[in-house]
Amino acid sequence: MKVVWGQDMDFITHGGGAQLSDRAHFLKGVKRGHDLSILTPNSDITMEDLMRCEVLIASNPLFMNITSFKEIMGHNIPYIWFFHDYAPLCKYRLFYPMRDTCKLCYLKERWLPVFLKSRLIIWLSPLHRESWLYICPELEDIRYHLAPSPVNVELFSDLGLERKGAISVESLHPFKGREHVIKWANDHQEVDITFVSGNPLPEEPLPLNCKVMGAVPYRAMNELYNKHEMFLHLPQSPSPFDRCVVEAYLAGCKVIGNELIGALSYSWFKSRRDVSIECSSSSTFFWEAVEDAMGIKS
Amino acid sequence: MNPRILFNPKDHPNLNSGYGIIARYLLPYLGDRYGRENVIIYAPIFQRDHVGEWDGMKVISGNTFDFGENLILQHYKNYECNLLLQVGDTWPLGILPDLAYSDQILWVQWAPVDWLGMPKNIVNRIRAAHKLVPFSKYGENSLKRGGLPNVGPTIWLGLNLDIWKPLPRKDFPVLMNSLGYSYDSFNVLMVAANQERKRIRQELEALGIFRKLSPNVDLRIYLHSPLVGERDLRADLDELELNDITTFPDPYIMTQGGFPEEHMAKVFNCADIVLNVAMEGFGLCQTQAQACGVPVVVLSEGAGPELTVFGWEIPATGVETSAAQMAQPMPDPISIARCLEEAWKLKQERGELRSQAAVDFIRGNFGWDKIAQQWFRVIDECMIDYQRYCLQIPLPSEDLYRRANNLLEVT
Q1: Across the interface, which of B393, B404, B411 has its CB nearest the CB of A254?
Q2: Nearest to B246 by CA among B231, B256, B257, B235
């Protein structure tokens, strides 16, 4: 199948969470024999090229505005939305407040007709879909697939190291639940907590049992998780998936989370074995869902 | 959601200018509806060092003699406003459009459109406003023709109908005398802060022609404008041989905030006809005159025709383009002179030039209570938009807060 994969950044050379997932899915698609090309703001793919593709996978391409999509719809180019967060429905993307007023959002008015024509919508978790349907119940009947973030499970395992305290990653941002992790730290003063990726509000004092360290290379995270007993993550708004929860869990940490973590909304997030199976086969299931939606026999 | 309004008219509500009067009458209605603590008055011209309160609403200062754009963002943030309501011309704005384009302010503009066509430089600026509320239907049509998607319903400027009403001129002999008018003369009134835009020169030329064509008419002119402003009017009058029949206001009072409306309503009632043959975004003197039943001579372009029940329309014969690419039509003095002839004949036939239909039109449409109701609708809609457009990062819903506190442990 001739596929154009639209994304804001070239995921082959950029390394954020969404890019890791896109890269894994993309490479799996190539292995399955599909003819894939990448559409980014810098690529030279034209509308004529798009018209020759069999499906466009819109993987959170913020650079593609409503006008682009109207043109795509006008040319009857089939497309599949692969949402990584709440864009383009919510302008704050990751800080989706899920309020009643969100149902009035002008972006819903603008984008819903585009979503309704999607051959398939891919969300990252049951929570992710539920949160979208809160604003857009009209999408309830659209064919969908839930694709957990594909994690390289070989990189994360229990190394048998001595463990102590809790670790938390990027959770000192207000929108990622700063208030909640600090409250937890105050309620559990016997637990030492290491916050990875810095403190964006250094002028606000942290409880004495909190320690802040800077960013850690991805390849060093398994060992760091292995030095901690618990992984603490208490987001403030519904996170679509949160691959670090899976990685820390596979690295042997007990997860202290809340109801706003996409990964924990999967019914299979109960054993490391199941988590490992589901996340390592995510790309295979991703393409099976895409092929099925496009009427191609796997 | 309640608005917290940064109200930015060009002038302070104490000032007797058009913008000052607008502020004076609309603000109390806004304060009553939304709470006086939620209306902040920022009127930089003539109040550079003034801070305090006006009718229970906070007044904050500017430090420039323009719209005070330089402080708008800071004021908007400091006073935690969620709506900027600016009253005034759009063409000089330079900072505001960028603030609005970047969602830092929700900008609503109540604005005159007093030019022909729609210059690109103006379109690009005002496109950033969340809503453009024109002073006139003429303005609304022009903006829409210019392709602007954010044009709100026209809201005309109001009048204090307790002040602006027919008054018997026989009660004001001293005032009549001070204006240079007599009860038997043909009394012409012109009101102009901006002498060029108001086409005072063309109107004076018309009066000169009329005087020459009708030498038996006892013509009197009261020109409510500074003697020397954009033009040296004394020189114009000398050239046109009108000096002997023209009276000006007391220049000292003009420096002290101008004449109060009560005085001006009497002045209008003393006149037989008001000349305002200029391209107007609105033209308050047109409604003020008709509120007193007095006819007006207006230009056929701009807001004049839609506001005129009793008067004459003058076609434009040329166009002048300003430095800001604004094209403004020029009236034809001969046509104005012909209207004056007709008006004089009518006065002779009727005894006085007054129209009850004009009074009824003004009383039915221009009361500030009616204008305020129209504004409430616009502001309330903006507050809905404020939520729809999510102009500030909202707090998470209570349900999210509850779920964030429901801890899960996976071992």
Answers
A1: B411
A2: B235
- The CA angle B228-B230-B234, to the nearest 5 degrees, is 35
Tell me which chain A residues have a C-beta less than 8 angstroms from the C-beta of B410.
Answer: 249, 254-255, 257, 264, 269-270
May I ask the CATH class of domain A2-151+280-293? alpha beta
For the residues B5-18, what does the mean pLDDT come to?
88
pTM over 0.90: no
Q: Taking every pair of C-alpha atoms in chain B, what is the biggest distance, in angstroms? A: 107
pLDDT computed for residue B166 by the predictor:
98
Neighbours of B331 (CB within 10 A): 26
Kindly determine whether residue A101 and residue B394, on different chains, have CB atoms separated by under 8 Å.
yes
Chain centroid, CA B374 distance in Å: 17
Q: What percent of chain B has pLDDT over 90?
A: 72
Q: Smallest Cα–Cα separation from B327: which of B351, B301, B345, B309?
A: B301
Do A153-269 and A2-151+280-293 fall under one CATH topology? yes
**Mutation target among B400, B406, B407, B409 for the A interface, most CBs of A within 10 A:** B400
* Domain over A153-269 is classified CATH 3.40.50.2000: yes
Is pLDDT above 70 for B110?
Answer: yes
Residue B157 to residue A135: CA distance in whole angstroms? 40
pLDDT at B315 over 70: yes
The ipTM of this complex is: 0.91
Q: Identify residues of A whose CB sits under 8 angstroms from chain B CBs.
A: 90-92, 95, 97-102, 104-106, 177, 180, 184, 234-238, 249, 254-261, 264, 269-270
